[in-house]
Specification:
By secondary structure, this protein is of the alpha+beta class. The chain has two domains: about 1-95, no CATH class; about 100-185, 2-Layer Sandwich (Alpha-Beta Plaits). The chain has helices spanning about 15-20, 35-50, 105-115, 145-150, 160-170, 180-185; strands spanning about 1-5, 10-15, 60-70, 75-80, 90-95, 100-105, 125-130, 135-140, 155-160, 175. Helix 3 (about 105-115) packs across helix 6. The mean pLDDT is about 80.
C-alpha cells in the first residue's frame, strides 16, 4: 500500500493486487452502498491516517474516486471536503469501466477484432446487434485509452459507465457474451 498526501485535503492510496486480496475485495466489487466496500474504505483511511499522522474520520464528507490498475490493483483518491460544503452522503466514484464501440458493418468489426492484441483473460468483451448496427462492449481493469485508440480506427468509440452498458445488454440483441473478441478473431 502506497500512501501520499499531495495537499491538506487530498490523500492518494495505491493498492496492489496483494493489498486488494488482503482486503478481500476487487475493483469490480467496489460499491459504496455495500458494507464490505465501506469496511475496506474505513480500513484504508485508518491505515492512511496512522501513516500520515492525521485523524481521518470516515464519517466526514468526502469524495472517493477509484481507478483500476493493471494487475488487479486500484488507486483510491480521497478528497476531504470543507464542512461548509453542502453535499449528500459520501460515495465512491469509479472511473469509466467500459468501452463501447459502434460498428456500421461486420467487415469493420472483424478487421478490428483480428488486429486487436488483447489478453482475453483480463479483458471481457460482448457483442450486440440492433437494426444492422453492431456494438462491442469491452471491460478491462487496464487503461481503456489504448483500446479506444485501436478501435476508433474502425468504429465510433466512447468510454462509459455501467449504466449505458446495461442499457445495451437489455435492449440490444446479444450475439456473443464474455469473449466476443476472441470469437471474432478466430473466424
Amino acid at each position: 500500500m502506497q500512501i501520499n498526501s499531495p495537499s491538506e485535503n487530498r490523500i492518494v492510496v495505491e493498492l496492489s493486487a496483494q493489498d486488494m486480496q488482503d482486503l478481500d475485495i476487487t475493483y469490480e466489487d467496489m460499491d459504496y452502498s455495500a458494507i464490505e466496500t465501506r469496511r475496506v474504505i474505513w480500513t484504508v483511511l485508518d491505515t492512511a491516517g496512522k501513516y500520515l499522522g492525521k485523524e481521518l474520520d470516515p464519517a466526514r464528507r468526502m469524495i472517493i474516486e477509484a481507478l483500476p490498475l493493471e494487475g488487479g490493483g486500484c488507486t483510491l483518491f480521497f478528497t476531504i471536503l470543507d464542512t461548509s460544503v453542502k453535499v449528500g452522503r459520501s460515495k465512491l466514484i469509479k472511473q469509466p469501466s467500459s468501452l463501447i464501440c459502434d460498428f456500421d458493418s461486420l467487415d469493420g468489426l472483424f478487421k478490428a477484432a483480428e488486429e486487436c492484441n488483447v489478453n482475453s483473460a483480463l479483458t471481457q468483451s460482448s457483442l450486440y446487434e440492433n437494426n444492422g448496427r453492431y456494438r462491442l462492449i469491452i471491460s478491462s481493469p487496464f487503461d481503456l485509452n489504448l483500446l479506444q485508440r485501436h478501435f476508433c480506427e474502425f468504429a465510433k468509440c466512447r468510454k462509459c459507465e455501467n449504466l449505458e452498458a446495461e442499457f445495451t445488454r437489455e435492449h440490444w440483441n446479444s450475439i456473443a457474451e464474455n469473449n466476443a473478441l476472441n470469437s471474432l478473431a478466430r473466424k
